Amino acid sequence: MSSPTFKLVVGLGNPGPEYLFTRHNVGFLVLDAWADEEGEAFHEERPRFSKFVSLNSGERLVKPMTYMNESGKAVGAWLEWLKLKVSDLLVIVDDVALPMGQLRLRPGGSAGGHNGLKSIESHLGTDGYARLRCGVDTVPPGWTLESWVLSRFRREEEDGLARMIQTARLAIECCQSDGIAVAMNRFNGQNPIETNQDQ
Fold first, then answer.
1. Three-state secondary structure readout of 107-154
2. Angle at 185 between CA 22 and CA 25, to 5 degrees
3. Range of the structural domain that residue 184 is part of
């Protein structure tokens, strides 16, 4: 079996049941679904401020328990401990600039105002790490950014959320087997919710 493109896959979110199904926790939700598929459970790793799963396929799945604004503390600790390069890292994150369900893979780029990505960039000293952005829809009129990303997905969004998580998993699998350039070409701009509705 060939080595995966990304050895450290980090999903961003906030710890605690009150945040579980909020928009800001899409990264956690994708990793939870992946671990469930593999029949694995997350273990706590206190020195590295995280919960993690090690997979037989070679990936380490990590959910920082630092709260979003300090995500970089955990990411930096894992890269140092595992002696990995920034190019071994993929971060899964929510994005309010994308429609609900749309995905966007990038090999690097700005934080785009996302506090979790800002923290990672600050701790690593670079924005040159891969990220998978998962659309959670734009902030509605009358809402603040904080209140929107910390709001729970509505009941009518649950099916769409499940399809987005499934498609995110396919995009990551494509990255791991064929590289991020192939996965970007295949998945960027695709909206699994709209695609399903059109069928």
1. CCCCCCCCHHHHHHHHHHCCCCCEEEEEECCCCCCCCCHHHHHCCECC
2. 10
3. 8-198
In a domain, 3, yes or no: no
For residue 97 the two structure tokens come to: 């600039």
- CATH number for the domain spanning 86: value is 3.40.50.1470
User: 180: which residues sit within 8 A by CB, 6+ positions away?
Assistant: 5, 105, 107, 130
pLDDT tens-digit series, residues 28-73: 999 999 999 999 999 999 999 999 999 999 999 999 999 999 999 9
Instruction: Confirm whether 1 is domain-assigned.
Output: no
Query: Per-residue confidence at 195, pLDDT binned at 50, 70, 90?
Result: low
Q: What are the phi and psi torsion angles at 82 (to 5°)?
A: -85, -5
- The residues assigned a catalytic role are 24
